Amino acid sequence: MTWDIEKIKTEVLSDVQAAGTLEALEAVRLKYLGKKGLVPEMYAGLGSASPEEKKSLGKGANDIKVLAEAQIAERKAALSLSAKKADALDVTIPGVARGLGSRHLIDQTVEEICDVFKNMGFVIQHGPEIESEFYNFSALNIPLDHPSRDSFDTFYLDAKDPAAAGRHLLLRSHTSPGQVRVMQKHTPPMAVIIPGKVYRPDAVDASHSFMFHQIEGLLVDKNVTFADLKGLLTAFCKKYFGDDVKMRFRPHFFPFTEPSAEVDIQSNIFKGRAGKWLEILGCGMVHPKVFEAAGYPAGEQMGFAFGMGVERIAMLKHGIGDIRTFVENDVRFLKQF
Ligand code: DAH
Predict the structure, then answer these.
(1) Is the per-residue pLDDT at 157 higher than 90?
(2) I need a surface site. Which of 8, 61, 154, 279 has the fewest CB within 10 A?
(3) Domain 105-334, architecture per CATH
């Protein structure tokens, strides 16, 4: 029996490469190196071979054995590695879902409130957080030395006001300065909502924060009455707090409106506080001095304005007892909304 050693070597190489799994590779090993495989068969044939044949056949069988062993070992290592890799990346294991971020409750509340007014025809405007004394006070009929300024305690900045000698810029203490800015930029009739952050140097506690949010409203037209203001705010409260909300207008004083009022509500959505009246906003008819500061001719326009604290409203609506929870960024609090 003669063997074509070179042909067998080529076959060993291609068989080993063709084996795509460890099982297929084991079959190749048995084919060549197993007890009934080709190499033992070649060795067995040596006994009946002539001395010259013995020599070349013996060498050939040995070469094939060495080659097959080396090739199979190498292939086995490669196949085991990729099997391990496949194990490491078991795509059937459920993944660890990343927590999705959510919008902050204050942001949501601002949007909800703005949406109510947008649906009634108001447009959203924004004013700067860094303001001048003119817009924050003087234009709103709050004279520089007037005690009513005390209730709008203010953070002053180191920066000088480029428009007023000797005066400093400040962080707005309410959104009302936006009223004058909007009136200067646009001509009536107008109905705007101005949401934003405001700052006051209050000591922080459960109901005070040095930064909070307000939403300002302003409507200017030829014939506007307090009844229009009442109607609008009543519609807002019903829409936002529910039809069963009870509200009242209580006379108040603001330098930039005359007459002025505060709105309280009493609603059964406030657990444990049923029956208690809670103030939610200030409002009134735009003071002639404010129109004057905006550059409007005296007596031509009428308007009303209102301003509400967003944190306050969110706390009332969701039963939140401490204003600090809005800025502590505790995910357990934030993700409830
Ligand atoms: N700016 C007032 C404050 O911060 C709130 C306010 C009251 C706004 C009456 C108004 C208004 O527009 O008419 O306390």
Answers:
(1) yes
(2) 279
(3) 2-Layer Sandwich (3.30)
